[in-house]
Amino acid sequence: MDIATLRVLQNLPLELKILKTEQRIREWYEHWEGQVYVSFSGGKDSTVLLHIARSIYPDIPAVFVDTGLEYPEIRRFVKQTKNVIWLKPEMNFRRVIEKHGYPVISKEQACYIYQYRTTKSEKLRNIRWNGNKYGMGKISEKWKYLVDAPFKISDKCCDIMKKNPFKKYEKETGSHPIIGNTAEESLKRTQDYLRFGCNAFEAKRPISRPLGFWTDNDILEYIVTHNLSYAKVYGEIRQDKDGKWYTTGAQRTGCMFCMFGVHLEPNPNKFERMKYTHPVQWRYCMFKLGLAEVMDYIGVEWGRQEVLFV
């Protein structure tokens, strides 16, 4: 698939997107003879995905990984959802950052910094510093100073705490995942969607992304038009003067303590907001886990100063 085709799909009316998503779920379910599950985070995207999947296959299981990093509202919402299998990672967040490092900047840059610091291969070190023959695969000039940071940095958190429990479940059960990722969320997810489309039957780890061509606006519109329950952390869902849907609370949830992308957020960022909305978790991650020191080092506000909310 090319980017032009993706743009056409993203601009389809919601009703047609729903039909296409239902078709992709049926294709996935039938191909694996029902040995499938919905990866359920409790977030708004996976809430929509689970609703559509269960409108076709009411008994399809949902699988949730209890990392300990979810917003409490997310955990409460997951507990209220029927037929959810709970998994636990083998290592908690504190142990991950102690052993491997903090998740900062982006998965790609954190990976490059980690590899530069730990590899025994001079060739790989050179690529991570200078890039390959095409100038790619290197630590950004802006972030090269992080190789000397007084703390560890890595991209290992997501693999250890989320992906590995799912992979273990898949190996034990023979099930294949249906996930709620959308292409518009990141460049990496756009690239994955362009490469495989909705159903990656031939991928090393087969994954279905039947919402891949949806937008965030589609997700919110679906929740409203189908009167779905969703996690309270998002606040209310409203429309602006142009008819675009938005949430009054969190825009995205994910892991509370993850610092990927926080340097790109407008103030008040997620951690500044967390100081007021979830003060217990904020104090723990800032001072017990050391996130305040890390964010000071990368020059990002974390709630040291009082924040004016507008």
Task: List the main descriptive attributes of the protein structure presented here.
single chain, 310 residues, alpha/beta, Rossmann fold, 3 domains, four-stranded parallel β-sheet, two-stranded parallel ribbon, 10 strands
Task: Write a structural description.
By secondary structure, this protein is an alpha/beta fold. It folds into three domains: 3-91 and 158-235, Rossmann fold (3-Layer(aba) Sandwich); 104-148, no CATH class; 259-297, no CATH class. 45% of the residues lie in helices and 9% in strands. It contains 13 helices and ten strands. A four-stranded parallel beta sheet has the order 3-2-1-5, sandwiched between helices. A two-stranded parallel sheet has the order 4-10. Helix 6 runs antiparallel to helix 7 and helix 11 (270-277) crosses helix 12. The model has no long low-confidence stretch (mean pLDDT 94).
Average the pLDDT over all residues and give the rounded result: 94
In CATH, what is the class of the largest domain?
Alpha Beta
User: Order of strands across the biggest sheet?
Assistant: 3-2-1-5
Strand-and-helix sequence, N→C? Answer: HHEHEHEHEHHHEHEEHEEEHHH
> Over all CA atoms, what is the radius of gyration?
20 Å
Give the CA-CA distance, first to last residue: 42 Å
Give a quick account of the main beta sheet: strands, pairing sense, barrel closure: 4 strands, parallel
| β-strand amount | 5-15%
Give the overall shape, derived from the CA principal axes.
Answer: globular
The poorly predicted ranges are none
CATH superfamily of the largest domain: HUPs
- What is the second-level CATH architecture of the largest domain? 3-Layer(aba) Sandwich
Oligomer: single chain
Number of helices: 13
Write down how many β-strands occur, each being a DSSP E stretch of 2 or more residues. 10
Overall structural domain count: 3
Helix/strand/pairing category: alpha/beta
CATH topology of the largest domain: Rossmann fold
Share of helix among residues? 40-55%
